[in-house]
Amino acid sequence: MGAEPESTWTAAVTAAYDHSRPAVRFGDLTWTGRELLDRAAGAADWLDALGLDTGTPVPALAATSADALALAIGGAGSGHPLAPLGVRMTPYEIAAVVEASEGHVIVVQGEFARLGEEVARLSGRRAVVVPELRPSTRTLTAEPDDLAAVLHTSGTTGLPKPVPMSQRRLAARARVNGRLCALDPDSFYGGSAPFHHIAGLGNIAVALAAGALVTGLPRFTVEGWALLRALGATHTSMVPAMLETLLAAGQAHHGTLRVLQYGGAPVRPGTLRRTYEAMPGVRMLNMFGQTEGSPISVLTPEDHREAVAGRTDLLRSVGRPAPGVEVRVDDAGPDGIGEIHARADHFFRSDAEGWLHSGDLGRVAEGGYLYLYGRGSDMIIRGGENVHPLEVETVLAAHPGVADVAVTGVPDERLGQTVVAFVVPNDPEAPPRPATLRSHTRARLSGFKVPVRWWFVDALPRNANGKVVRRRLEEPYQGETRA
Fold this sequence. Notes:
By secondary structure, the protein is of the alpha/beta class. It is 28% helix and 27% strand. The protein has three domains: 1-165, Rossmann fold (3-Layer(aba) Sandwich), CATH 3.40.50.12780; 220-377, 3-Layer(aba) Sandwich (Rossmann fold), CATH 3.40.50.12780; 380-472, 2-Layer Sandwich (GMP Synthetase, Chain A, domain 3).
């Protein structure tokens, strides 16, 4: 007998879609709630037939689609939790993650078959293409401590690290986020974040537990937004850079959108005002968190209305602790700034006392609002994507024209941060062309990790131990691109 709906994500999804109303819609394809569950059961049967070890995460190359949702639900309810990976990463990047996993199979949607074959070759695993998923009458069940899914986030060396999501904690996250975003069976969620991201499958999992109608885009585009508008989506999520793209194109209007969730960077006051002009009734939320635990805090729709009425300082904050979240600032200096620690039932990774060590620096201001002051580590957060400097530096250092290199993040109004490289050339009289370095990097790393500006310097600032002092890496001409 399965667990109660409140205790596992699988039980919540199963209860939410026991009906004949539309549940997923992708292009001309629509499945009812019952059809979604039957296809998910068919996915569970297929995963069983692969001879996988129960409880072992299953690496997957998939984009948001009806089949991907069925795989995620079926995997969670059969002991084969899906671990989707970024399909826009290079085969070498993906293979490094797969090699660190226990499984011997990679499941691959047909459109990524060639990528899957290359990853399998590099990692010594077997790639299996997902077939047409046939319906099954199987009942999906799970226990609270079973794994529901695994997402990855960048680690201290740049290699994405797994974040196991238990059934119990994913169900708790779905309840918290679902209430904050007012998601219910009458909602229509349309996402555009990559499936492997916390804003992709992570947010879709919330919508599924709420019983919402779900659709998605393979990636964000102005044309894709127009499709969500035409379909009548009521909920979505994005980063502010996407919103500014829509505003610049004159395409932000959306008559049916009720809730717009964003994160990864603050929204500018002018952007907020223009958004309300385009969508007068929309409710906006800024969710602060990370793959290991989200939300930590939330800037509510009411906060946004106060900001547009004059309290623009609120937009520089990430709001107040989300429901059920304790927040403390550890090792704070005289200015009140220290590392943000948080504790809640919906966090996936914590210490023995339940505290998540965020790695972000912040302070709590009057009224309980949390303000961020960058990362405690060197991590660059570009438009919601994590970039670790060491990973980029390692690739650049392999170029024959580079003697030394340091990569850092600099503030960017649209993306929060952007990536900049400081290069010591082997031959100062003939340094490598930025376009050459860009191509070298892009061939080995995802596009968002490639520096947007390149500065050639005589030496890097280092301390007595030889470590680069990143805070002393300053651009000679702020905003100028050397390309």
